Amino acid sequence: MKKKWAFLSSMLAFVLVLAGCEPLMVLDPKGPQAAQQASDIMLSIGIMSFIVIAVLTILVVILFKYRASNQPDDYEPPHIEGNKWVEALCIGIPVLIVAFLSFMSVKSNYIVESAPVGYENEEPLVVYASSSNWKWHFSYPEEGIETVNYLYIPTDRPLEFKLYSFGPITSFWIPQLGGQKYAMADMVTTLHLGADEPGEYVGRNANFSGKGFAENTFNVTAMSQTEFDEWVQEVHEKAEPLTEEKFDELLEPGHLGQMTFTGTHLEFSPAPEHTHNDVSEEGNDSEEESDHSGH
Amino acid sequence: MEFFERFAIPHPSPAIYASMVAIALVTIGIIAGLTYFKKWGYLWREWLTTVDHKKIGIMYLISALLMLFRGGVDAIMMRAQLSVPDAELLDAQHYNEIFTTHGVVMIIFMAMPFIFAFMNLLVPLQIGARDVAFPRLNALSFWLFFAGAMLFNISFVIGGSPDAGWTSYFPLAGNDFSQHVGTNYYMIAIQISGIGSLMTGINMCTTILKMRAPGMTLMKMPMFTWSAFIANLIIVFAFPVLTVALLMGTTDRLFATNFFTSDNGGMDMLWANFFWIWGHPEVYILILPAFGLYSEIIPTFSRRNLYGYKPMVWSMVLISFLSFLVWTHHFFTMGQGALTNSIFSITTMAIAVPTGVKIFNWLFTMYKGKIRFTVPMLYSVAFIPLFTVGGVTGVMLAMSAADYQYHNTMFLVAHFHNTIIPGVVFAMLAGLTYYWPKFFGFMLNEKIGKWAFWSLTIGFVLAFFPMYITGLDGQARRMYTYSEATGFGPLNMVSFIGAAIMAIGFVLILWNVFYSFKNSSREIGSDPWDARSLEWATHTPIPEYNFARLPHVNSSEAFWDAKMNGHQLFRGEYEEIHMPSSSGVPFIMGMIFFVAGFSFVFSLWIPAVIALLGIFFCMALRSFEKDDGYHISVEEIKETERKLGGAK
User: Fold this and answer.
1) Which of A198, B21, B222, B633 has its CA 20 to 30 A from that of B419?
2) Which of A217-221, A270-274, B78-82 has the lowest mean pLDDT?
3) With contact defined as beta carbons under 8 Å apart, do A80 and B304 qualify?
4) Which residues of chain B neighbour A294 with C-beta distances below 8 Å?
5) Residue B408 to residue A206, Cβ atoms within 8 A
6) Coil, strand, or helix at residue A194?
7) Are A106 and B473 within 8 A, CB to CB?
8) What is the total count of domains within chain B?
């Protein structure tokens, strides 16, 4: 058995060295939501390692001590039914751990499901992110801009992504800014993200959606609000308007490079945000909005 | 010609053509061999028409091993494709079909028949019964499973395999995005074998409730029987959901209904909910019998009774109840909002408590024991820490906010393989080695068995632990390739090496069967492991009636009590034994179901209607058939018992 554990620990070391070249993307957060998730992950890894080590230690000690070769031939193990104190402990400790993790989990749920902590006073930037086989269309309704397969975002400002799909279920994911959420054809889901630092991040569809799934990625560039405003200005000066015919062409299955347009497809092909009449387009009350609206 | 186009493979490759030739050759070889050795009659009398639970169990076992091979080849192809960045071994479509069939084959056509094999082999013996409650229904269950499995497996050479993932989420699995017949195969093949599973569920529950030996109260049942009972209860509650969902999916695809479409009032999220309302209990259907096997093996090789019998039972009951309350954790990211996610996050984590109780009870079963490191015990000992890792990563995934980062990544893939392989697969291999002498009359070689064990364990760790890391580094699952810039390359290469080592382990197991068949001693007695529960109390080979006289039971380890404490298991005189007759109808029905399924897959309505009528005809025939089985006389029993060596 010893050989096995020696092997396992060397394996672990090997893997850590391999992984150590660069920080893992999810554990290298660049925004408040991702930071919250990364800290939850590290906390749970800590607690869980403790459990695994405890079980492993008990196992190794028992195997070592009670192996047949370590005992006299005439040794006859006793009949033990169980002990209520031992059992209470075996139930009690896991209950405490689970209760603590449940508390942390519920707390984090409400954090990641609302505007990022720290930028509450800022007006959120609303971006409609819709997927079609196998592309992402990003519509900035307030700025009157639409891009394909790339996203420009301002830092230090809440980002509110309105997700839906022109095809199969996809999942909008920018690992360094925060976890993913599904984009579906019959309802709009809302994902709250934020970026602390300017930089380039990778984004992708994480949910299998057919043949072109592997390449269904997009680039994210985070920049200061001033630079973002300049970019908006520039697009309005240079880009072509998005027509309905052009948009239908974009929806054809396949892959496209990065594209930029003025105007958004929402004007002629609105998002599936039916029902809820009290919900404002701008998403000021982000809490309850739209997540239940698809029914 | 238009008619025949539907049978063509949408994306043919040399490998598929080679498979077609191989399948044809193997079929011809089997037919020629059976004819040459004049074994058709033997095959029909002893196997195709049998209703004996032991033979049905063995047929499940063989099918499971074949499907393990099929699913394993899929796995190796996937790992090979991902071993280096930008590999071109498989194209996207081919990769998509392979991971879909890998998932379906491993869960529905490998793990399910594997647990059914052990339920069939062990439950009647453990409760001291002569067969299951409904022997002919049991045969029908097997042949429906077999028809479903065969139908699913021909998909890659006729018409094309399903390519929407084993979860088959709509609208991707709908006609708009998946035009070829692959998903029809998925819907109909799983439906046919699922009906078989549902019948087994009813059959096993009835058997366990009604046919226990005198003195065996529920709380004196061996732990594997308890686990089988709970698993079958879950089957009875969960499988109808799958049946209905698959039927709705089938009508969506074949008859243009709109249950799961994204327009005309359809709702794609409904499929995801239905699928996982079945799908989550399904994983407990698989793991509970595995827990049951470990609960048989660990006491035997620790030479101790199972610690905490009652908590073990209650924890399974609790797990089965909770298993129906957690399905949403498969799609925390579907936008239900914080409240729903919080509820399902808590129920999911709650399952860790009864599971933890079981882990501790196994540990305490070894405490003060006398531990022998045989092959079945090695699997059980490796299971404890490896499954703990799988379990705690499950708790991590249950933290819904963090799950937004794990979802759809290799982290998740690592987690569920980390529970299914050390949990289910190791249990099945341990059970295979442990029960092999009881059913085949010789032991498997320990040395080759240990080599296989180490290959599988080391291979497993190398193949799946790196995925936790690449998952946290942003590698999504189900991607057929990735670029070098992602940096996923080295760890995926490690995974491939691990998968190759696992493949060696499986080949060693097959070699072990062959080697031991040639070389092992046949003089092993009826209790080679010095075991504890009732299945070891009968002869090896087991007579068709299992027990000449029904055993009297006073504890969950009646056989051990008989050996150690002089408990009298078999009392009284021999009496005539009533046995069920063989029947060819279940096999024929299975074949008709296959024809019906195939016809539905390809929308061939005339044969479909004829086959459906055939099925109803068989059912009607059964209603009017008068068959009271047959009786084995006392003289015959005495003769058999004498031959097998002493009365039991």
Assistant:
1) B222
2) A270-274
3) yes
4) 269
5) yes
6) coil
7) no
8) 1
Q: Tokens in use for B344?
A: 């399902």
Helices (H), chain A: 2-20, 32-65, 84-112, 225-238, 244-251
Dist CA A44 CA A60 (whole Å): 24
Whether residue B591 lies within 8 A of chain A, CB to CB, comes out as no
Tell me how close the Cα of B83 comes to any Cα of chain A, in angstroms.
15
What domain range includes position B75?
52-293
> In this structure, are residues A120 and A194 in contact, taking their beta carbons and an 8 Å threshold?
no
Nearest beta carbon to residue B491 from set A18, A75, A102? A18
**CA-closest candidate to residue B453, choices B478, B425, B473, B480:** B425
DSSP state of B111: I
- Give me the CATH number covering residue B91: 1.20.210.10
Task: Tell me which residues of chain B, numbers 448 to 467, contact chain A at a CB-CB cutoff of 8 Å.
Answer: 457-458, 461-462, 465-466
Residues on chain A touching B481 (C-beta within 8 angstroms): 214
More confident residue, A142 or A3: A142
A245-274 residues touching B, CB cutoff 8 A: none
DSSP secondary-structure letter at B542? Answer: P
Give chain B's mean pLDDT. Answer: 94
Hey, where are the domains in chain A?
17-70+82-112, 125-267
CA distances (Å), origin B615, targets B594, B609, B618: 11, 10, 5
Is the pLDDT confidence value at B443 over 80? yes
* Best residue in A10, A102, A200 for a mutation probing chain B (most B CBs within 10 Å): A102
Q: Which residues of B touch A130 (CB under 8 A)?
A: none
Would you say residue B451 lies in a domain?
Answer: no
Query: Looking at the domain that runs over A125-267, which CATH code has it been given?
Result: 2.60.40.420
The torsion angles phi and psi of A137, rounded to 5 degrees, stand at -110, 125
* Domain assignment of residue B388, yes or no: no
Task: Look at the block and give the residue holding tokens 């957060």.
Answer: A29
Output the six-digit token pair for B304: 């101790």
The H or E element spanning position A180 is strand A178-183
Please identify among residues 80-99 of chain A the ones whose CB lies closer than 8 Å to any CB of chain B.
80-82, 86-87, 90-91, 94-95, 97-98
Alpha carbon of residue A2 to chain centroid: 39
Beta-carbon separation of B472 and A41 below 8 A:
yes
Confidence (pLDDT) at A241:
94
Does residue B163 lie within any of the structural domains?
Answer: yes
ipTM: 0.92
- Rounded to whole angstroms, how far apart are CA atoms A254 and A40? 37
